[in-house]
Amino acid sequence: MSLEGPGNIGSEPLTDDQLMAELVSGHPEALQVLHRRHAPLVFHSVCRRLDASAAEEITQDVFLRVWQKAASFDPARGSLRAWILQIAHRRVQNELRERGRRPRLDAGSEASLVDLAAHDSGPEEQAWAEYRRAAIQRALGALPEAQRMAVVLRRYEQMPYEEIATVLGLSVSAVKSLLFRARTTLRDSLSSYLAD
């Protein structure tokens, strides 16, 4: 196989799903095309949380993971962009943990779910904060995948609705609806943690 131009085999542009099939079939050239298409988005997304040097390293790690785990990609579960951004998000979380920092929700209204890093008091407050962090992670994990991805892209990656719609392959109104349902579910799930 020889790729001609960005994302083409012969004269026909390949979709992301076709490129992933080529990658699984043992054509590493497909990874180069996927990297050209999606690396700028990954880099930009990571730069919102980390410095440019770390973003470059993580972007490379993400595409190494795409290559290693290509066979596990299932287009029926979501778009390739969403899958790649999930990999990037997990890698950023790992990096922040390694640096001794914890990911926080942004200062928007949803951040009132729990002030994750406000207390430096005693061990009781730290234990309670850890417990609440775990509860938030469980609540996020319990959301349907589309809602969880919308929350992650909006709150952690700080993407505008239009970009989220593009990544998830939905309309802007569908994204807003997903986020509304997710917020309602999270508020209900976490209400006991907010009452302290």
Summarize, please.
With 196 residues, this protein is mainly α. The chain has helices spanning 16-24, 29-47, 52-68, 80-98, 123-142, 145-156, 161-168, 172-194, and strands at residues 8-9, 12-13.
Explain how this protein is built:
A hairpin with a 2-residue loop joins strand 1 (8-9) and strand 2 (12-13). Residues 1-6 and 101-120 have low confidence and may be disordered. The chain starts with 7 loop residues before the first strand and ends with a helix. A two-stranded antiparallel sheet has the order 1-2. With 196 residues, the protein is mainly alpha-helical. Helix 3 packs across helix 4 and helix 6 crosses helix 8. It has helices spanning 16-24, 29-47, 52-68, 80-98, 123-142, 145-156, 161-168, 172-194; strands spanning 8-9, 12-13. It has 8 helices and 2 strands. The protein has 2 domains: 1-101, RNA polymerase sigma factor, region 2, helix turn helix motif (Rna Polymerase Sigma Factor, Chain: A); 124-196, Orthogonal Bundle (Arc Repressor Mutant, subunit A), CATH 1.10.10.10.
Number of self-contained structural domains: 2
* Tally of contiguous helical segments: 8
Extended strand count: 2
CATH level-3 fold name of the largest domain: Rna Polymerase Sigma Factor, Chain: A
Are there runs of 5+ residues with pLDDT below 50, and where? 1-6, 101-120
Strand portion: under 5%
Biggest sheet architecture: 2 strands, antiparallel
Question: What class do helices, strands and sheet pairing give?
Answer: mainly alpha
CA radius of gyration: 19 Å
Q: Please, what is the oligomeric state? A: single chain
CATH class descriptor name of the largest domain:
Mainly Alpha
Question: In the CATH classification, which architecture of the largest domain applies?
Answer: Orthogonal Bundle
CATH superfamily of the largest domain: RNA polymerase sigma factor, region 2, helix turn helix motif
> Averaged pLDDT, please?
78
Q: What proportion of the residues is helical, as a percent range?
A: 55-70%
Question: What is the H-and-E element order?
Answer: EEHHHHHHHH
Distance between the terminal alpha carbons, to the nearest Å? Answer: 61 Å
Widest β-sheet, arrangement of strands: 1-2
Overall body shape: globular
